[in-house]
Every structure is written in structure tokens, then in C-alpha cells.
Specification:
The protein is an alpha+beta fold. It is built from nine helices and 20 strands.
Length: about 375
């Protein structure tokens, strides 16, 4: 017998979505979270954007799960009273060379099933967002914003309504296979003595920590982890924009974009900084690059109005100079370990895709 039927490691948006979906199948589910609050790493340190599914390679997990997850997320927010807004976004080209890039982006979006993008020329764009300086843009009407913590609380509530539970302040040190089937999960809960739980099924949704934990199981083929920090600056005062503003994407990320929270306060970011460890402080000197990037599409950004806000660290599984990696969601058919699913590299659009990822996990088990 096992202590618990199904363990999920990690109470971020994806781990909670997986746990909720598993509990809805009748399983006994427990989520282990090392922090004292759900969703306090990657899930809490992002732009809170509901992505449309525009940029990702055709047939990739990112493309498929983002497009499906977006539909589910809007419906989930409406059904559960979670604050959200289908605010729309503009992908702006600041010169004629980038205008040609917009057509490539629209084609890629169409391949992913996103067929609602509209091209705006400079005149149409000026009427829509007069403060923008751009040669053209793509309008994505299905892009939105949400209260990410409200979303995660609703996921936790759904899990608990089906008999599951989240256990906080519980750090998983390592995992191992049991001879009779199932897994042993060694835990440090902050007390004098570590202990272990056994489970029949295990879902490793530990974000940054997933590759290291899965390295305990050599046959799993865990990837190498990389860390890409993204800093955000908030705007002092009101921004003259009604929609999210994104530049044409850059290697490693989507460029320094303007997002709006649900109170329409503007923030800019994230940039891309490859790091070796976790330091969430925002270096004020990075503002210089932000001003330069933002003024390429908003030339009237006043001096002294960008204030360091917060940062996040993307759980990358491809390093500097490498092509961006797809999500890796691997079950027994991939690694041969019965009753185990490991999730790697769940960065953007992981928040948008969370419900679709959760729906994918149970069949893999």
C-alpha cells in the first residue's frame, strides 16, 4: 500500500491545474509545495497575460496547448468569477523591414489556428493608439489579462472540492522508485527529521526544480536547466494606451513590451538576462535599455518615469544562443517509468496553457 495515491510536486498554476484535473477523475491527490504560499515563483512573476498562441512553431506543445488553454481559461474565469479582461494587443513594427516580419507572424499564427489577427497600417494604428509611432501592427483581439493569483486560488478550490489537498512548507529533497511499484518522495518540512511519502503516481511540476529532481531517476532523461531572468519596470503615471503593446519578437523572449494590469497601470518588460542563480532584485541601471527599447515605439516616454518593479526567472531547458525549446511533458511512453509524468521548461505561455496541460496529464498516466 502507498501513503497517497497521487502526489504532485509544485503548487504553481500548472501543478494546481494538473492536481485539479487528476482529482476530478476520482484520484486521491496531494500537492507538495516548498513555499508558504501557492504560486510564488514563476506563476507569480510574469505579465499575467492570456496569450493568443501566435508565435510558437506549428504543432508544438506550446502552440496547441496555448490555443486550447486560452479557450478553457476564458471560460474558467467567467465560470469562477476571476477578474480578467479581453483587452487585445498590438504587435508593432517600427520600420518597413519589421512590417514584412508581421506577415510571417500572421502566417505562423494562422498555422496554429489563430485566425483573428488584423493588420493595421500606420494611419489606422494612429487612430487606434495615437501615442504609438509605428509603420504598422497586428491586432490580436483574443489576447487578455487576468488575476493570476485568483486563478490559482480557484484551481486550489477545485482540487479541494474533489477531496485533494495542498501541503505548504514541504520541500522535496529527492525521489526514487519503489521495488513494488510507485515512488518514494523524501521530504524536508523544516523540522528536525526528514521523512518520506510513498505514492502510486507522481507528477513532477516543480518548475525550475524539475530537472534536478528527475535527475534522481537516471532513466528519465531529464534535461539541463537554464535560468533566464526578466525584469519589469512600472510606469509612474498613466500610460496613453488602451491595449497591450508588443514589439516584433527578439531572440529569447518577446521583447520589452507594455502590459496593463486590471487597473490599467502600465508596466514594461521582461527583458532577457541569463543568470546562474536566483536573485529577484531589479537592477535600476537596466532602465537605460528599457527607455531605448520603449522609445522605439513610444518616443514620448518621459524621462524619470520608469521605476524598478519586480522580476521573474524563466525555467529554460535551452541555453543562450540555442533555439527556444518546446514544453516537455513526458509520461511512461517517453521515459518508461510507470505512473510518472514530468514537466520541463514550462515558461510562457504556461499560465495560459495551464488548464490544457492539466487535461493532458491524466491520460499520460
Amino acid at each position: 500500500m502507498h501513503d497517497i495515491e497521487t502526489l504532485v510536486i509544485g503548487a504553481g498554476a500548472v501543478g494546481l491545474a494538473c492536481a485539479r484535473a487528476l482529482s476530478m477523475t476520482g484520484r486521491e491527490v496531494m500537492v507538495l509545495e516548498r513555499h508558504d504560499l501557492i504560486g510564488s515563483e514563476t506563476s507569480a512573476r510574469n505579465s499575467e497575460v492570456i496569450h493568443a498562441g501566435i508565435y510558437y512553431p506549428k504543432d508544438s506543445l506550446k502552440a496547441r496547448l496555448c490555443v486550447e488553454g486560452k479557450k478553457q481559461l476564458y471560460r474558467f474565469c467567467e465560470d469562477n468569477g476571476i477578474a480578467h479582461e479581453r483587452i487585445g494587443k498590438l504587435i508593432v513594427a517600427v520600420n518597413e523591414t519589421q512590417v514584412a516580419e508581421l506577415e510571417k507572424i500572421r502566417q505562423k499564427a494562422s498555422e496554429n489556428g489563430v485566425n483573428d489577427l488584423a493588420f493595421l497600417d500606420a494611419g489606422e494604428l494612429t487612430k487606434l493608439e495615437p501615442a504609438l509611432n509605428a509603420s504598422g501592427a497586428l491586432l490580436s483581439p483574443s489576447t487578455g489579462i487576468l488575476d493570476s493569483h485568483g486563478f490559482m486560488l480557484a484551481l486550489q478550490g477545485g482540487l479541494e472540492a474533489h477531496g485533494g489537498q495542498v501541503v505548504l512548507n514541504t520541500k522535496v529533497d529527492h525521489i526514487g522508485s519503489l521495488d513494488g511499484g510507485g515512488y518514494r518522495v523524501a521530504i524536508d518540512a523544516g523540522g528536525p527529521d526528514p521523512y518520506a511519502l510513498s505514492c502510486r503516481e507522481l507528477v513532477v511540476a516543480a518548475g525550475h526544480g524539475a530537472p534536478a529532481l528527475m535527475a534522481d531517476l537516471p532513466d528519465a532523461g531529464a534535461p539541463t536547466a537554464f535560468l533566464a531572468k526578466g525584469s519589469y519596470f512600472k510606469l509612474q503615471g498613466k500610460a496613453p494606451f488602451e491595449r497591450l503593446i508588443y514589439p516584433v519578437p527578439e531572440p529569447g523572449g518577446l521583447g520589452v513590451h507594455l502590459t496593463l494590469d486590471l487597473q490599467h497601470q502600465a508596466r514594461f518588460g521582461p527583458d532577457v538576462e541569463w543568470v546562474d542563480g536566483f536573485d529577484y532584485r531589479v537592477d535600476p541601471s537596466r532602465a537605460e535599455k528599457f527607455y531605448r527599447a520603449i522609445r522605439s515605439y513610444w518616443p514620448d516616454l518621459p524621462d524619470g518615469t520608469l521605476i524598478p518593479d519586480y522580476s521573474g526567472i524563466r525555467p529554460k531547458i535551452a541555453g543562450p544562443g540555442e533555439a527556444s525549446a518546446d514544453f516537455r511533458i513526458e509520461g511512461p511512453e517517453k521515459h518508461g517509468l510507470k505512473g510518472l509524468v514530468a514537466l520541463y521548461g514550462i515558461e510562457s505561455p504556461g499560465l495560459t496553457a495551464a488548464l490544457a496541460i492539466g487535461a493532458m496529464v491524466a491520460p499520460l498516466l
